[in-house]
Design brief:
The structure holds two protein chains of two kinds. Chain A is an alpha/beta fold. Among the domains of chain A are: 122-312, no CATH class; 328-466; 610-669 and 681-714, no CATH class. Helices cover 57% and strands 11% of the residues of chain A. In chain A, α19 (554-571) links the parallel β7 (542-546) and β8. In chain A, α4 (150-197) packs across α16 (492-505), α8 (274-283) crosses α9 and α9 packs across α14. Chain A is globular and about 95 Å long. Chain B is of the alpha/beta class. Chain B has a domain at 80-179. In chain B, the strands form two sheets. Chain B has an eight-stranded mixed beta sheet with strand order 6-7-8-3-9-10-12-11, sandwiched between helices. In chain B, α2 (78-100) packs antiparallel against α3, α5 (203-213) packs across α6 and α7 (249-261) packs parallel to α8 (279-296). The chains are: A alpha/beta, B alpha/beta. The interface between A and B is large, with 51 and 42 residues.
Chain lengths: 716, 406
Amino acid sequence: MSKALEVKNLRISFKVNEGTVKAVRDISFDLEKGETLCIVGESGSGKSVTAKAILGILAGNSIVEGGEIIYRGDDLIKYTERDFEKIRGNLITMIFQDPLSSLNPIMRIGKQMTEATILNGRTNRKNAKKDYTTKLDQIEKAMSAAGCPADRVREQLRTFRAMAGEASRLESAYHLARDYADSAVLSIEQMLVDVHENDLKRMQPQFRELDEKIEKSYDPYLLPKGEKPFADAVERLHKAEQTYDGKDGRQLTDCLTALRDELKAALGRTEPDFFALGYTIQHGDRTALRGLDTDGMNALARPYLDERFMDGFLADLASALRHSAQQALPLKEKAAAAIRRALPVFQRETLDKAACERAARELTELTGRSIDRLSLHKNTKATTFGTTMEKNLRRYFDGVVNNPKELRREARQTEKLKRAAARKPDVGKVTPAVLVDLDLTRRNIVTAMEELAASYEQELAAGSETDYAAQAREMVEALRGMSYTMTNKVSKQAAYDKAIRIMEDVGIKEPRKRFRQYPFEFSGGMRQRIVIAIAVAANPEILICDEPTTALDVTIQAQILELINEVKRKRNISVIFITHDLGVVANMADRVAVMYAGKIVEYGTARDVFYHPAHPYTWALLASMPDLDTKEKLEAIGGTPPNMVYPPKGDAFAERNEYALAVDFEREPPMFQISDTHWAATWLLHPKAPRIDPPKSVTDRIRRMREREEAANGQP
Amino acid sequence: MDNREPILQVRHLKQYFGRKDFKAVDDISFDIYPGEVFGLVGESGCGKTTTGRAIIKLYNITGGEVIFKGQRISAGPRTFTDAIAAEKIASAQRTEELKKAGRTDEAQAEEQRLAAFIQEQKQAAKEARRDQKDCVKLYRERRQGEIRAQYEPKLAAASGEARHALEKERDARLKEASRENIVTKMQMIFQDPVSSLNPRMTVREIIAEGLRIQGVRDEKYINDQVCQMLERVGLVKEHADRYPHEFSGGQRQRIGIARAVVMKPELIIADEPVSALDVSIQAQVINLLNDLRHEMGLTILFIAHDLSVVKYFSDRIAVMYFGKIVELAGSDELFAHPMHPYTRSLLSAIPLPDPDYEQRRKRIVYQPAIAHDYSQEGPQFMEIVPGHFVSANSAEAARYKAEYGL
């Protein structure tokens, strides 16, 4: 599994009248591909702020004080609004708590659903086209530079372009047909229920819809038109439909089941190797492919492609990659040395503006030149180095110099406070004029530099061992991906079809009618489904759900959760799920992060957190929620969360924690590792701490869970 | 439990809306006994809240009746008009048949009977209207009558000074009874603590508003009551002069509770009081309601959709589905032996904080068309086990009994 998203040492605060609210204080977590991470905590614990930071939709008075959000090798913190527009609602989407306020009340549902698809389709194609051309140009240059004859390079790239183009066209058509076949299966399942109810009136339009879907799911590589068993099944269904009078549905049911099974069989077959097919169609003997099934086609076309073209191309590509990487090596060495040399400038107690800026400029140029444009594994530290330096330096210097007003205010307030303190001690605090933590900023700069130098040194050491053949294969895959996005045109009709299909996916009946309605015509659960459909329509990689079911009741909640799980499984999406309902967490989560007062206090797999909770706050959360067996008085958490303008010294939860140790009020606990997957920030885990067990209600509950588990295992 | 006098009786309550008679609540009946917590669950739009509001007279009910402390406080006219319409059709048919058979005497008798029936129903409707409108006055009169009757034998037995004292005592009680307002004995706590408090009133004004409307003019008494209530719900009296926006969600809900409890109600209708709150605050509010209930002997109609909370808090639970009660039982009994397929589906949808269980949990989908076969015989609300009622027809009832092991 690879990481879809990494959050490192994120700190966010909000500027308000009384000072700055430290909303998120140094949290780190990562999100694997295809997993669900649940973030649990009370309101005000910083859950939603974290989610909003990932999407770049923080409120205007927010300050990101430090940290990184790494996505696809880039740091999202450094993204501009224009950069965010490319990923927001497209690669990362969000579902909000209130389905009413996240829909536009005066726009038809259909428009709202297709809007993003069409817009994103357009920009995606444009971007992919640009990327694809630049990449190919770069490759061409590198290949020539590596010593391949120019004619051969030109010929190879032309072949590749044509082949990739053909493959993408085939694949687009195949996937479209596949989607229709999928949705035909869904409709058949719905129809089976309706036949059972003998609802003739409802059935008639469904037959038409099914016909349409089947018509669109014909594709030479998925369901060749006229394929014997399938055509028979359709034929029989048509006959049964004509004789069906709304009374005896047995014959119809049989036909529908047969058709569904045929469709499922087609969907279950191996996917054709489009690359090989593309080449064979372009350059080879396409008649040989006729009459073969997908496995046969693959077996025939792949070796043909490899022998005639691919092996040679890959070898040339690998040598080009090697050449390019080796060219970059001395530059990297130089840059690393320069960084090491420049470090003392930034390590002083107070920084000198002119010297720092000069050094930063020089280093930025050096690192910029040392980037290997052909490398697939983007060195984030190098690509973002320039902006990091610029931003941090600006913050460091402007924080002091450009704020005379703030300085005056601080002086005035301090004076006032001094006078007041003479009469009555402990009257309050003054918000510092410099809201930037200078030490922290300086540390951030130094760390960025050190990390970059270290990464360069690492690369230099590993330089000779890189497997360029493997990299060449990866490059080909990446190029193919771009080519596919480039070809995959989203027309209005396609967007409509897709929207209808997704509406069916999320369980909205009569999608064609619903498509033309306004949000107010939907119930709460239905609206939330629409919001999910919109979020999913863009085929995101990461789905962030901010309390999507809190306003809904159990049955609808269960349906929505099932829906999110289903979509996640089908499309291999990573989900960040924010909630305060522990039952929902247990249902959804692969891993859980418990947040309190802007920090993650416990982090682990769902089983770790529910069966071996370690932090007193987690205990308190578990104990305060009644489950079906609770009889005794609930142990509510006393008090309220602390005011985060003045974060408490030591552990933020100490004041409400009946198990607090003396040290909890003095020093902040670090993250103690309990197992490979489980961490908690509490002094109770320190080796010298007294042994304290979770409260009885929690241990009782865990015991009951175990018993239930054993009972379930006992009788399978 | 059944030998006690119920504090609230709901009989065939119907609440329809609009010209097309959208049936929000359709013929439901239940009793609530003093001191118990009666949970009402169901998905949104099934009529839980409408039921609560109909009981507290926020709507004019369409049909059926609500009896609170022995006094009918609302009654719907539809019951009588429906009866008249049905009788008219039936009677016309019978008269026709009789006329055809040439038995004119009997036909005439039938017509007379119909006229009498209509008269009777109209009279009943009139009474219903009176009860609906004047329930406060009627309750006062009834209370006074009761007090008089109570003192009658004592007065007859006593004489002289003792008699005088008794008379004085009786008059004081009569005066008290003449101020009693049966409707304020029922109070409501609302779901949304933000929108249910007037933002332009201080907490003191909000809590005291009910008392003032009741005609209390004694400022010191009002002040004492407000402070006492604030402390009772876990706030401090300094909070009295603040405005609602200065409080957190949990504290606002406490103010809502104080406002209801200050009227010294006997029945509280709590409409999703914890649904909008954070987990840790939920527990605080539930504990508070539980304490109040034991100290003040409150009866609570608890409307919610979070089944674990309902299970924890309620003595008996009624499950509603599309305006009808489909199952009613003691809370442990309901969760141990759910009978109606809808209840089963509802219970199977509760997520528990237990990952392994969640992995196993299979949600049961309720599809009325498949779950029931009512083509031969419609469902009725019947008692399968003592205290456990289910809406079922006789075939289903037999099956439920068999599954229960009877």
